[in-house]
Amino acid sequence: MRAARRARIVGDADLGQGRCLEIGPLANPVVSPEVADVRYVDVVDRSGLVAHYDGNPAVDPDAIPEQHFWLTRPDGTVATLAEAVAADAPYQHVVASHVIEHVPDMVGWLRDVAQVLTWDGALLLAVPDRRYCFDVHRAPATVGQVLQAHLDGDRTPSVRAVLDHFMRAVDYTAEQAWAGEPPPAQGSHPIDDVRRHLARQQAGDYVDCHVWPLTPRGFADLMDDLLVLGEVDFAVERLTATRVGEQEFYATLRRLDRPRAPAEAVEEARAELARLRAELPDESPVATGGDTVPAQQLADVERRLAETRDRLARVRAARDRARRQRDRAVAAAAAAPADRPGVLGRLRRRVRRG
After folding, report:
1. 127 and 248: one domain?
2. Which one of 250, 280, 310 terminates a domain?
3. Where is the composition biased (Low complexity) (predicted)?
4. What does the alpha-carbon distance between residue 338 and residue 249 come to, in Å, rounded to a whole number?
5. Is 217 within a domain?
6. Last residue of a domain, one of 225, 250, 280
7. E strands of the chain, at which residues?
8. What does the longest C-alpha to C-alpha distance in the chain come to?
9. Quick one: 11 exposed, middle or buried, by C-beta within 10 A (0-12, 13-18, 19+)?
10. Are 306 and 232 in a shared domain?
11. Is residue 143's pLDDT more than 70?
């Protein structure tokens, strides 16, 4: 299962080429030392992660690897990614599974990643789809919010991010979403919890949360806006739909070819992004017989139905060929000389049995 998911995240990238940095592996690294020459970085060191997730049944503390780098300085301030790993950079690949939606400043983070990559390096992303997780009631991230966070120089999630996350999160799984079950109206965090997290944020703590709710098409639109504004140094090389029954989508971002004219590189990146976006399924719900299902799920059912029809057509064609061959054999046997009744009789008996 882990190898299959890693293959979906990595795509065509060869992790054996060059060195790799994985951001926020927690207890489930995508890339192991057996697969690539990898380094790990997180907000705090391993002991800090173990303490933070103590008692969380979803996190096995023994599976958390040692972090080579961490962002939190001894004085409590938070460094950028580029500052934290500067001495070890550059890397051929940066892997970030369920990370980009957490970063306080997406523009600054993407620039940091570009800074620590080789000139032709790639950022490999796994991103939760807000429609199939606890973000289902959240509005999609907008380019205005993303730029505001960058201009404000956010190093920790903002008041807006903390409140939107903790006030709107619900207990909702991908399995429930794909089954067409409506999400619960009741939030999963009592208001006292919301106030506590807000007070921590106001005191300067790093309150981890989903800052940017995303979908595949929403991510494509956001990247296109940022390319137009000249705020990102990446072209989107690969962007997948969320697989039916699952909760995440995948993207490969490649550093822009800066030796070329910047305007030319951006236009080419936008054209490729438009092509990728056009291949994504519609994300609006579709009403069918009184029920509402995701358009992608309907498209997947229709695709499977078309494949079944194609297989049925091939089976019928093979059956018809067999019948024609049988009829020709019978006709040939009937036209055989009369001195071979034994052969004709045996053939007719086989035909009747078949």
Report:
1. yes
2. 280
3. 330-345
4. 72
5. yes
6. 280
7. 20-23, 38-42, 69-70, 91-97, 117-128, 234-239, 248-255, 285-288, 291-294
8. 107
9. middle
10. no
11. yes
Instruction: Give yes or no: residues 35 and 108 share one domain.
Output: yes
Confirm whether 57 is domain-assigned: yes
140: pLDDT strictly greater than 60:
yes
How far is the C-alpha of 237 from the C-alpha of 88, rounded, in Å? 26
How many Cα atoms occupy the beta-carbon half-sphere of 200 within 13 Å?
16
Cα separation of 106 and 113, whole Å?
10
Compare 93 and 302 and report the one with higher pLDDT.
93
Using pLDDT thresholds of 50, 70 and 90, give the confidence band for residue 333.
confident
3-state SS, residue 236? strand
Residue 303: pLDDT band (50, 70, 90) is: low
How far from 147 is each of 114, 142, 225, 316, 350, CA to CA, in Å? 18, 9, 10, 59, 79
At 279, give phi and psi (nearest 5°).
-85, -10
Q: Which of 108, 99, 1, 126 is nearest to 41 (CA)?
A: 99
The torsion defined by the Cα of 322, 328, 330 and 332, in degrees rounded to 10, comes to -150
| 205: in domain | no
Single out the residue of 142, 153, 73, 76 nearest to residue 111, CA to CA: 153
Report residue 26 as tokens: 């927690």
Q: How far is CA 78 from CA 150, 176, 352, in A?
A: 15, 37, 84
Between 325 and 252, whose confidence is greater? 252
- DSSP class of residue 18 equals S
Does the pLDDT of residue 42 top 50, yes or no? yes
> Residue 217, Cβ neighbours under 10 Å: how many?
18
Specify whether 258 is located in the same domain as 125. yes
**CA 255/CA 202 separation, integer angstroms:** 36
- Cis omega (within 30 of 0) on the bond before 90? yes
Range of the domain at 263: 2-133+212-280
By 3-state DSSP, what share of the chain in percent is helix, strand and coil, each rounded to 5? 45, 15, 40
Length of the chain counted residue by residue: 354
| Structural domain count of the chain | 2
